[in-house]
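User: Laminin IV type A domain-containing protein. Structure?
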Amino acid sequence: KNVIGLKCDSCDAYSFSLEKSNIFGCTDCFCFNRTNFCVQSSFVWQQIYASDRQVIFSEPWKYYIRKHNLNVLREKPLIYNSYPTDITPLYWPLPSSFLGDRTASYNGFIRFTIKNDDNYRGITNVAPDPQHFRFFPQIILVGNHRIILEHTPDEVNQSGRYKIRLHESQWRSRLSPDVPVTRKQLMIALQNLQGIYIRATYNYPSTLIFLKISFYI
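Assistant: Predicted structure:
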C-alpha cells in the first residue's frame, strides 16, 4: 500500500519507516493536519525510569482516590500503607516526568515489573488470577482531555514482567472498545499525555505490592 519501486523497497511520499513487520510496508504520515508529507527522523529513543514503589495493606493506612473511574494509589510517598482493595484492582499513577508531549515515543515501549505478595499466607510472587485478570485493563493512557486507551495482554506473565508497545494495534478505546484504535487517535493522545495508570493488584487478597517501571521516549 505505502511502498514504491520495482522491489517495493521505498516508502511513498506520504509514508515513512519501511518495516518488514508492517503489513502496509510503511507507516502513514500523520502531522496533526498540517501536512501529508513526512520523512523519517534521525532521533533515537532514550530510556527513562521511575523510582520503585511499594505499598503495604495494613494499618495505619491511607485511602486510595477515584480518578477516571479507577481506584488510584497515591503517587507519594514511594513506600506507604494503603487501604486494602477488593477484587476491583488498584492502579499506580506514573509520575509527571512520563507525561506531556510524548509523540516521539510512538512505537516505543513501556516496561514494568509488578510483584504481589501475600504475607498473611507467607506466599511471595503470587501469580495473577486469570479469572480476574481479563476483566480489567493492565495499563491505561489518558490524553488530550478526551481520549482513554486501554491495554490488556493476551495472557498472564508469571514473572510479572511486561513490555507494552505504544502502537495502535496494542490498544483499545474505552468509549468504543469494538472499533480499532487508529494511529491518529494514539498520536493525539500522546501529544498531551495526562495520565498513565498501571494495574497494581492482580489477586485478592494481596498484602504487599511492588512496581518497577521504565519508558522509552
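The chain has two domains: 1-42, 44-216. The mean pLDDT is 82.
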